[in-house]
Amino acid sequence: MLVFKVATEPWEFDEIHKLNYKTFVEEIPQHSEQPDKRLIDKFHRENNYIICTRDKTLIGMITVRGKRPFSLDQKLPNLDDYIPKGRKVCEIRLLAVKPEARNGVIFKNLMQKTAEYCLGQGYDLAVISGTLRQLKLYKHIGFIPFGPIVGTKEAPYQPMYLTLEAFRDTLSRFGNEAKVLFEDMAGKIEQKRTVTLLPGPVEMHKSVMDALVGLPISTRAQGFVASFERVKIKLLEISKAKGVEIFLGSGTLANDVMVGQLSLLDSKGLVLSDGEFGERLIDHAERWRLDFDVIKREWGQRIEKEEVEKKLDENKNIKWVLFAHCETSTGVLHDLYGISLACKKRGVRVAVDCISSFATVPFDLKNVDYATSLSGKAIGAYPGLSFVFYNCEVSSQPKRLPRYLDLGRYAEKHGIPYTTSSNLFSALAAALSRIDFNTKVQEIADFSALLREELERHKIKILAPPEISTPAVFTIPFPKNISSKNVGDELARRGYLISYMSEYLLSRNWIQICLFGELLKEETLKLPEIISDIIKNN
Questions:
Q1: What is the pLDDT of residues 270-296, one digit of tens each?
Q2: How many angstroms separate the Cα of 62 from the Cα of each of 94, 140, 440?
Q3: What domains lie within the chain, and their CATH numbers?
Q4: What is the chain's mean pLDDT, rounded?
C-alpha cells in the first residue's frame, strides 16, 4: 500500500539520501559521485520532506523549506524582484520519483500532500527551480516562469512560482472532484488539533474565542461598567486581595505600575532574582531609579524565606521586597506565604509578580501589598489585559507618576479612567465565568504529576525538582550535543507548540512545557515519548 506522509523516521531519511543521489547525481548530473551513493542535501536539517513509501521503500519525494536564503536565492540574487510581494514564501525542491513509479498517481498525491502541508504552515506562494524537461507539467499545475535560466549546461532550470490562488484555479479545472479535495484539505488543516503548551498565548475554550467576536461597545456604557465590576469581584474572590485594577497592556505594563507604587515609598528595597523574570524585575526597579539590594541565585535554584529574613534583619533600612512568585524561566515556585509573612512581621511592603502562578497553584494575597497578573495565561483568555492587586490605600499621584501608570487614578475612576478593549474584556469575562479555581488548580497538580512521571520514565531531565517547582511549568535542559531549537522545531512540525525560541531559553539550550491553558491530556502525555524519539534521532 502506498503511504504519503511527512518524513520523520531515520530509515525514511536514509532512503531520501539514496533517492536524492540516484536522481541528482546519476540521472541528472548536478552533483559529484560519492562512494556510499548517498546525497545529503545541504539544507537537510531545515527541509521538510513529503514522501511516498511502500513497504519501507521510498518511491518518491518533494522537499519544502521556508527559511531564507533559498537555494534559488543563490542562483538568482534578486529573486524578490520577480515574485509577488507580501507573501509567505516557501521553496519546493528535490522532486524525485523512481523511474518505475513515474505515473500520474504518485505525482498527483505527492502534490496534494505537499499542498496540505503548505496550507498548514500558512505558505501562500512557492518558488521552484523547474527542470526544463518538465516545464509543460509545471505550467499545467499553475507555475509561472520568471527570470533567466539558472543552473548548469548539464542541469539547466527555469525559476518558477505558484500562488495559492493559481493552485485553486488548477484544481478547479481538474473538475469538481479535485475542487472538493482542495476544500477537504483546507478543512483538515483547520480541524487538525495543535497542542498548545506555551506560557502564553494558551489553549482556549471555544466560548472564550466566541466572546471576542462582536462589535466593540463603549466602555462608558452602563452594561459594560456593571460587567466590569463583576469581573473585578471575581478576581478578588480568587486572589483574596482587597482591590484590583485592570490595565490595557501586557504583564510588563502591570509590573511597571506596581514598581511605580514602590517608588512612592522613597526607601531602600530588596529584589529577589534566580531567573529571567527576577532579572526583569531588577530592570523595572532600575528604570524607576529605586535604591535597592539584590539576592541572587543560580537559575534553577530557589531563594528561601530564611535568606530574605536574614537580609531584612541585617539591614533595617529595607522597607520593600519585590520578587516573582513563579519564576517562569526555570519553573521554580517561591514561598509566597512564608516570605510575605516574614516581611509583614517586620513592617516591610511586599510586591509580587504572580503572572504565572495565578490560577495554577493555591493562592492567597492577603499578606501582599501589591501583585500582578494577566488575562493570557492560566485564566485562559486572550493576551492584552493585565491586573494590579493591592491591599493598601492608593491615591492618584499626578506629580510623581505617569498618567497611564498611576494606580490611584484607576481606583478613583472606578477602574475605567481610559478607553479599554470591550472585546478583550468580553473574552476575559467568558474565561473567568468558566473557572472553578480550586478545581483548576487541582487538575493542573494531578496532571502535572503524571507528566513528570512520564518525563522521568523517558529519562528526560527536569530543571527544578518537584519540592520547589510549580506544577504548571517544566523547564527541560539539554546537553550540548542536543539542540533545543531542533527539538522545538521538530515538535512544532508534529503539532506541539512549546516555548523554546526566547533568547534566554536558546542561550541555555532549554525548552519549556507549560500547563496554563485547556489541558489536552491524552495528546500531552504522548509528548515525553516523542521528545525521547527526537533526541535519539538527533
A1: 999 999 999 999 999 999 999 999 999
A2: 6, 18, 45
A3: 3-192 (3.40.630.30), 206-434 (3.40.640.10), 437-536 (3.90.1150.10)
A4: 89
Counted residue by residue, the chain has a size of: 538
pLDDT of residue 119: 75
- Written as one letter, the residue type at 460 is I
User: From the centroid of its chain, how far is CA 427?
Assistant: 20
Query: pTM for this structure?
Result: 0.67
Element (H, E) at 268: strand 268-273
| Calpha distance 538→536 (Å, rounded) | 6
**Which ranges constitute the DSSP H helices of 346-421?**
407-412
Which residue, among 244, 362, 299, 361, has the nearest Cα to 509 in the 3D structure? Answer: 299
Task: Dihedral sign for Cα 424, 384, 262, 432, please.
Answer: positive
Collapse the DSSP code of 234 into the 3-class scheme (helix H, G, I; strand E, B; otherwise coil) and give the result: helix
What nine digits make up the cell of 197?
503548551
Cis amide prior to 466 (ω within 30 degrees) = no
List beta partners, residue 244. 389
Long-range contacts of 266-269 (CB under 8 A, 24+ apart): 267/291, 267/317, 267/318, 267/319, 267/320, 268/292, 268/293, 268/315, 268/317, 268/318, 268/319, 269/293, 269/318, 269/319, 269/320, 269/321, 269/322
